[in-house]
Amino acid sequence: MRLAGKIAIVTGAGSGFGEGIAKRYAQEGCKVVVNDLRPEGGERVTAQIRAAGGDAVFVQGDVSKDADVARLVQSALDAYGGLTTVVNNAGTTHRNRPMLEVGEDEFDRIYAVNVKSLYLTAKHAVPVFRKAGGGCFITIASTAGVRPRPGLTWYNGSKGAAIVTSRSMAAELGPERIRVNVINPVAGETGLLADFMGEDTPERRAKFIATIPLGRLSRPLDIANAALFLASDEAEFISGVCLEVDGARCV
User: Which of 48, 130, 133, 152 matches a 20 to 30 Å C-alpha distance to 84?
Assistant: First the structure.
């Protein structure tokens, strides 16, 4: 069990990459606080983890709201008596289209979910990690933050901000044994795929896949396995890195 004794919050865990990470963590002995904005997905994932013999609780909440994030961290302490890992996975985007066609409300929501959430989880989890003598943050960003595509400009910018913020956190928090790392997935089999492509058609998929040397989209398990390593004691001296899980898309 590579995560025995670990207690993790996984945001946006009701589907997609977050679901894959939460289930993979539980398989490796981690106690998981499953968070999602939508109860139906989070409750389903939590029930499936428990049915498979894992340990999980569901906490509904919006990662862009201070009170919700405070409650999320407190729920980990109440349920399991501690917290070792926070996976900032929850994310959103705008539909692929020209940058000036994206509304201000959409822009604000993207930065609130993709960037402000890092501030809020740090605000509430760092004191817990300090008291425990260390901890681990993992940010699920995107290849869009390092190799942006036209049509996703504001999303690309939010992921670039998430990457730089996470690396700065690693530098600042390292002396307190708090590690911060980033995973950059290429477009994958998640609910956001149609928005990334503009529409989910065989032709659009083929166009996207043609840019990935390994010849396929990412899958939740690809991201989950990377997140498993970064949360484990095997990665105790790894902090501030950006790990592209992208089939060589960013080369």
Answer: 48
Judge contact between 188 and 219, C-beta under 8 A: yes
- The model's pTM is 0.96
Contact 215, 247 (CB under 8 A): yes
pLDDT per residue over 198-216, tens digit each?
777 888 888 889 999 999 9
| Number of domains composing the chain | 1
The CATH number linked to 55 is 3.40.50.720
Does residue 111 have an active-site annotation? no
In a domain, 204, yes or no: no
Domain membership flag for residue 130: yes
